[in-house]
Each structure stands twice: as C-alpha cells, then as structure tokens.
Amino acid sequence: MKKTLKPILEGLAVGCVFISITMLFEIPFYMSLIIGALAALGGYRNSIKMDKEKSEKAAANKQDD
Question: What are phi and psi for residue 2, nearest 5 degrees?
C-alpha cells in the first residue's frame, strides 16, 4: 500500500466507526457527520504521526547496529 494512501484509509475507517456509533445514540444526522469528519481528520493525523515515530525508531535501531 502506498504511504500516502494508508493514512487516508485509516482516517476514513475511524470516521465511519464514529458515524456508526453516534447514529446508535440517535444524534441528528448532521451532527453525526460533523463528529465523523473530525474523527477522520484525527485518525489521519494520528496515522501520519505513528508512521513518523515508527520510521524514527527504525532509524535509531539501525544506527545501534
């Protein structure tokens, strides 16, 4: 999977999950979409941050060898 596609897919997955959860609580649809969009944005940013930390850790382990 391309590095640019992975964070987008993870963000969309998080957004879909949050929309589903908020729909269970009978929150109005537009509010569910707003919450889902914010969750998708957070999932996207978190995925990028985690990938960056993972690559930094791998580089540090490579230097130790």
Answer: -65, 150
Half-sphere exposure for 64 (CA within 13 Å, toward CB): 6
Distance of alpha carbon 41 from alpha carbon 62, whole angstroms: 32
pLDDT in tens, the chain (65 residues): 677 899 999 999 999 999 999 999 988 999 999 999 999 999 999 999 998 998 888 888 888 76
pTM, to two decimals = 0.81
- HSE toward the beta carbon, residue 32, CA cutoff 13 A: 14
